[in-house]
Specification:
This protein has 13 helices and eight strands. It is α/β, with parallel strands linked by helices.
Length: 310
């Protein structure tokens, strides 16, 4: 199994951790790479809540919680970070000092064939981050209309041939149930008339289905709608994205919060009157060539940071 390498770890923690005695949230705990780095910089009064949907990640978090009383782990969506904090043994602060998100799927999830995330390994077609609830990819594909499948592939996978691939999936399931990853990958590959250079023809379809099954963009939108009110003044939002859909949501949100109210340019208003709630911290950060050489997954990573000012 490939070792999970935490992407942009040092840069993310440096951007996030401005108050050593603050209360922070790692909304995508994974295998704890970012969390351990945050804890290394926290003071004795600091607190860190880790959140993840994945039961295997939760087991890692429980072990860390037993090591460090400043840390707690909670299973669920990062969109519910405030409620999860309130239910944790760490308590609910008046304002969080920072929230960190490292979006997407992790290396351990891709490497475990039975999780169903990879089109390169044969396993059950599951794709759920939380395997204890919700529909698996196989269950959804068994009943979804071709128009629904096409919409998911186009919107979340940015797949040009979404309709064609959706029709092929529906036709194939009439012959035999689609229950494994390689089975789906073969259907998509054969239906895809134009393969992208250096990219598996099933890449976009698998991405779109995974995002839909786990409500990934919905969770991100929900968190963005709530996070500013939950941050303390000076609190940081740090988000690492791995594809354009996530990054576009984050970029637009941060710019909108930094710009404030959309008022006519001719009005003589001050910055404070624009109701700006955040400021952008630096430009978007990408992994160095050295990090990409060590961890190819980092190639598409983009990190954005914003700070609450009001």
């Amino acid at each position: 199994m490939t070792e999970h390498l935490t992407v942009l770890k040092d840069q993310a923690v440096e951007a996030l951790l401005w108050e050593p005695s603050g209360y922070y949230v790692d909304g995508t705990f994974g295998r704890g790479g970012h969390s351990r780095a945050v804890l290394a910089g926290l003071g004795n009064q600091g607190r860190l809540l880790g959140i993840d949907k994945d039961p295997q990640a939760i087991l890692q978090g429980v072990a860390l919680m037993e090591e460090d009383p400043r840390f707690a782990i909670a299973q669920g969506s990062f969109a519910e970070f405030k409620n999860l904090a309130g239910a944790s043994r760490l308590g609910d602060p008046d304002g969080f000092s920072g929230v960190l998100l490292d979006l997407g799927v992790s290396s351990p999830q891709l490497d475990q064939a039975e999780r169903g995330f990879s089109f390169l390994r044969d396993g059950a077609l599951d794709m759920r981050m939380d395997t204890s609830q919700g529909q698996s990819a196989a269950q959804w594909l068994a009943t979804a209309k071709d128009s629904e499948i096409a919409a998911v592939l186009k919107e979340y996978g940015e797949e040009r041939f979404a309709k064609r691939i959706a029709r092929a999936i529906v036709e194939a399931r009439e012959e035999t149930p689609i229950t494994t990853t390689l089975q789906l990958a073969k259907i998509v590959t054969e239906a895809n008339p134009a393969w992208e250079k250096h990219k598996h023809p099933a890449t976009r379809a698998f991405q779109g289905i995974r995002i839909h099954i786990n409500n990934e963009l919905g969770d991100l939108e929900d968190l963005l709608a709530r996070v500013v009110d939950s941050l303390a003044v000076g609190g940081r939002l740090v988000v690492i994205s791995f594809h354009s859909l996530e990054d576009r949501l984050v970029k637009r949100f941060m710019r909108r919060q930094a710009k404030g109210d959309d008022l006519p340019s001719y009005l003589p208003v001050t910055e404070s009157q624009r109701n700006c709630r955040m400021k952008l911290i630096g430009k978007a950060i990408k992994a160095s060539a050295e990090e990409v050489a060590q961890n190819p997954r980092a190639r598409s990573a983009v990190m954005r940071v914003a700070e609450k000012i009001a």
